């Protein structure tokens, strides 16, 4: 007795289109309908109350064959595959066996540019289910209303209703008599509230668009049926439309800065030059200071140099020595191999040093501190008091002879060879001991 009826529940809620006949048996029907009315709410699948299994009614239906997508079928691969299959059907058993053992490649030859365009230019996404959408029996046979618009007649519908080209739909005469459909008040219908297409004519003859709906004063009842409003908008009739610019965009900051700089330059050009005897006020009175404007900070008689060389200048580089060579070949000469690190070939650098070439390591001129080919002698300051000039010269010659004598590395080489031989024997003994380990 307390249960609401379906009509009462639809009258109490805000969205009666979501109400179902089973909602009245809920504990709180209003709360249930309010939950179902929320946005992005996924409804319960409609087959929850069915007695038979899900998709049981599709048993025995022939499943349609798979079709290639349109962008792949446009490449022509399907026709080439069909031609290859027809050729294989006409082969004998021996040819099929040979083809199975030794297959031939490259039977289907497709232009790679077509394949590239098919997958990277004309590829389309497959039809996917939307949010909260579920499949049910017979869904693929339903009309997709999202792709249909009221007032647009498809070619299939025109063919089914036998409507010739430039002919109105059969319900236009009734709409002109009773008015536009109340469910679509803003729908533009040619012959009712919109002009008829070009080439069509009014009248009740076959292919005629009936009689335009007018009132007693000859004015259209439902809209601009002659397209006069469009002509007024385009300026063909009535008052002309003023198309002058009524505003401008603000200039960018860069353009305004450039304009300010150009204005400042023009003002400087127009500004008169100051007299040499003093500054003058606008009234023409001469100032008592008598200072003249200084136009330059460079002392008189000096020109501004065009090029400044900031590199350090060395002494004696004022004279141009001519072009310098990139490299110089050093002559070789044979030599006896001496010592541990001796070499059979040496380079003669004496000619380069005499010819003014690059300095040789150890023979360069380092000023007054050290001379090329000099001899280092260590002397105590206390010993210089009792030495004469002859004794100093004798010590200098003795040190020079000692420095020019070549050292003998034979003992050093012998020690190194013996050390290496001893290390090798030791390693050999260790390897033999490791072999006999268990």
UniProtKB/TrEMBL annotation:
Protein origin, superkingdom: Eukaryota
Pfam families to which the protein is assigned, alphabetical: DUF382, PSP
Domain PSP proline-rich residues, every copy: 145-198
Biased amino acid composition, Basic and acidic residues: 309-323, 426-438
InterPro entries membership: DUF382 (IPR007180), PSP_pro-rich (IPR006568), U2_snRNP_Complex_Component (IPR052584)
Biased composition (Acidic residues): 249-270
GO cellular-component term (any): nucleus
Region (Disordered) location: 233-325, 350-369, 398-438
Biased composition (Polar residues): 280-298
PANTHER family: SPLICING FACTOR 3B, SPLICING FACTOR 3B SUBUNIT 2
The protein, known as: PSP proline-rich domain-containing protein
Originating organism: Leucosporidium creatinivorum
